[in-house]
Each structure stands twice: as C-alpha cells, then as structure tokens.
Specification:
3 domains, Double Stranded RNA Binding Domain, alpha+beta, about 425 residues, DNA polymerase, domain 1
Length: about 425
C-alpha cells in the first residue's frame, strides 16, 4: 500500500494546510530574491539561464519558456524536481510546492518518488473505478441482451449510480455508501427500480472479483436494507398486442359517452384515478395543451402539470359541448355537480370483459411507466410525469415544471405509439 511506503499518506489533509499557512506568513518576513515583475520581464538569451529564489528554488529561462525547478539532495544523490511552468504556475504556487517538497524531505521521503507513486495511485483508481469496471462489464454482456434491456441497464447505472460512486475505486465502495445511492432511488418512490439497480451493482462487483480487481461484493451486505417492493402491483396490461385490444375495446365502448371519454383520456395522461375523476375545466388550457392540477388535489400535495398530446386535446374537445358548462370534465352520471364515481371506470372495464386481475383504473399508469422505460425514455422524465414526489422540499417547490419540454415530447410520442398499436391491430379484431 502507498501509505506503508510513504507514511505521509496516513496524515490528515490539515497537516500541509496548516503548515502552508505558517510558511506563507513567515516567508513574508524574508526578502525574496524573485518577484512577479522580474519573472514577467525575463527574456530568453542565447543560452539558458537561472533566476534563483533561494532554498533550492529557481526558474530556468530558455526559448521554450520559464520553468520552476527545485534542486535537492536525497541520500547523497543530487536531484531536480519540476514545479511547474510560469505563468501557468505562479511564483506563490511554486513556493507552496517547494514547501511541500521540503517537508517530504524532512520526513526522509524523496519528493520525486512520492510524485510518481501519487500518479500511479491516481491511475490505478481511474482504471479500477466503479464506473470504469461497470462499463467494461456492460460491454462484455450487452450482446446477450435485447437492445431495450441493454439501454435500460446502462440508463439505470448512469442515472442512479455513476454520479455518486462512479469515480470511487471499486475496492473502496462500502455498503453504507452503496445504500445511500440506492436510497436516492427509493426517495422517488421507485422501490422496484432500487432493487433492480442493487442487483446490477452486485453483478458488477462479482465481475470485478472474478477479474482480481475486488475482493468482495458490498451489495450482499444490504439484504433487508431496502424498502420491499410491493408484492402485489396494480393489475395492468403491458403486452403491446393486448394494449391494442384494450384501446380498440374502449373505442367501441357502448356505455355512457362521458365514461367512454374518461376511458380514452386515461391512457393518454396516466394520472391517478382520483385525479382524473376530479379534473375541472378551470385547470385546462387547451391553447397551451396543458392540464395543471393544483397541489390540494395531488396525493403528495404538490402541483402537477400534465402536457396534453394532440390526441388528449381531441378527447377534451369532444366532451366539452356536453360538460363544458359545468365544473367537472368528467362529472357523475347522476349529477353534474359531483365528479365521476370512483367505480365508474372499473365497472366499464368489467363490462368490456376485463377482470380485476387483468386491468384496473390504476393500471394505465403502470402500463405507461413500464413501456416508456422499455422504450428508453429517461427515468427522471417518467417519474416526474407520474408525479412521484421529490423528498427534498426545496426541489419539490419547483418540480411541477421540471423537465417539462422533455415531458411534452414524451407524452406526444406515447400517444402516437398508442395510435400505431390501434391501427396495426384494428384489422385483427
């Protein structure tokens, strides 16, 4: 280990910092032989020459530039240490570097060898950093995966792990450090994703062990540390052909027109069922193609913006002649003064032949989330559109508009995708 060969590595960073402060104050009391003015005015001559500053520090001036050097002896051998090139390195910085070198000498450490060892350590850290090894593992495995799965794996690492521990030497990543990164995922409510990312990290660590670049897998110590993912998810449909059948069934729904419009609208906006039922006309701006849901109506009490695709705007325009004079976009079938019943959409799904184990009102959210992730959309865009809360209160205050341009593109692409499914499968019904 570097700390064994060079004991100074074991010291606290404050060691040199305090020393430098004292040195600077002391050096002000000692007349300096060199000044910045002298350095600026130093011109090359026919032959290289030196401008000395004392204590072994000098500047070598030649036609190539002005170079700070430090001449010293270590165990009887004369040596020279390069301290930088003026003006990239200032005179003050060169003196600081001189102090560091002389302090190493006082500890019987060769500054030149110390520098080589430091560079080697940094190179090793870069070579064996978690991100470096993870990308190496990914490159060796992506050929056995589908393109969509490969994109998902890489996206999960790039968005959730690399920013936090990617630069760390893989041998130094601790279980608490990994857990902290995974809990950032949990804070978005993405508990299943957190578990999947943990699994991917475990594979990276095991690859590193097999290659002799790590000794253990810290992810194995996190058993039971993550919030369990829900064992029973809301019933949903994620098979594209079955989604097409559902959409075509909605288009052909023979029940009340308001219910059919709610069914058409739900897959295009994937809000929570209660948020859809309580939609009010005052919340819509069709010229901007936006639905702004006030914080009081949201589960997490944070305002939410739903960008409306052309298809979603068309549904709202279809129903406006019928309900536009009232408060609610989708009012109760019995009274226009109340929102649609929470059982209306469920009853319609059952009427179309979908059992509770197959599809639910909440299932439109899970459907969109699953397929959009598979299609390679950024997890942050999807999570924000699903209105999964930001636990950071400062961030949360501005999150309603976060990633809005990207979310507009995603919502329109999603609506177009659903249209293509319907068109492709309409002749098969």
């Amino acid at each position: 280990m570097l700390s064994e060969e060079f004991p100074v590595f074991r010291r606290q960073p404050v060691f040199l910092t305090v020393g430098l402060t004292v040195y600077r104050q002391f050096s002000k009391q000692i007349p300096s032989m060199l000044t910045d003015t002298a350095l600026k005015n130093a011109k090359p001559k026919d032959r290289p020459y030196k401008l000395t500053d004392g204590r072994g520090l000098y500047v070598l001036v030649n036609h190539s530039g002005r170079y700070f050097r430090f001449d010293y002896r270590f165990r009887g051998k004369r040596k020279t240490l390069a301290l930088g090139v003026y003006p990239d390195v200032s005179l003050s910085q060169a003196r600081d570097r001189l102090y560091e070198a002389r302090k190493l000498l006082a500890d019987d450490i060769d500054p030149a060898e110390y520098r080589k060892a430091t560079k080697a350590m940094i190179t090793e850290q870069l070579t064996n950093g978690f991100e470096t090894i993870a990308r190496e593992w990914f490159a060796k495995n992506k050929h056995i995966w589908t393109d969509k799965h490969a994109a998902t794996v890489l996206s999960r690492l790039e968005n959730n792990i690399f920013p936090w521990i990617g630069g760390r030497p893989i041998t130094e990543v601790t279980p608490p450090e990994l857990l902290q990164a995974l809990r950032r995922i949990e804070e978005r409510g993405a508990f299943e994703t957190a578990h999947r990312v943990k699994q991917v990290c475990g594979q990276v660590f095991r690859y590193a062990i097999a290659c002799g670049r790590a000794e253990r897998d810290p992810s194995a110590d996190l058993k039971g540390a993550l919030t369990p993912a829900k064992s029973q998810s809301m019933a949903t449909i994620t098979d594209p052909q079955k989604i097409a059948s559902l959409l075509l069934a909605i288009e052909g729904y023979q029940g009340h027109f308001i219910t059919r419009c709610a069914l058409r609208f739900a897959p295009l906006v994937f809000v929570r069922p209660g948020e859809l039922r309580h939609a009010e006309w005052t919340e819509f701006n069709l010229s901007l193609a936006e639905w702004r849901i006030p914080a009081a109506k949201m589960k997490m009490r944070q305002a939410h913006i739903v960008p409306l695709s052309r298809q979603a705007v068309a549904v709202v325009e279809d129903i406006r002649p019928l309900t536009g004079r009232g408060r609610y976009v989708f009012p109760s079938l019995r009274s226009g003064d109340r929102p649609m019943s929470d059982n209306t959409v469920l009853a319609a799904l059952r009427r179309m032949g979908y059992a509770k184990e197959e599809m639910s009102g909440h299932g439109f959210r899970a459907m969109a989330s699953t397929l959009l992730h598979e299609q390679g959309w950024h997890s942050d865009f999807i999570e924000r559109q699903l209105a999964h809360t930001e636990r950071n209160n400062v961030k949360a205050a501005y999150n309603h508009a976060q990633h809005l341009p990207e979310r507009r593109k995603m919502m329109q692409a999603w609506a177009d995708y659903l249209d293509r499914l319907k068109t492709k499968n309409s002749g098969k019904q």
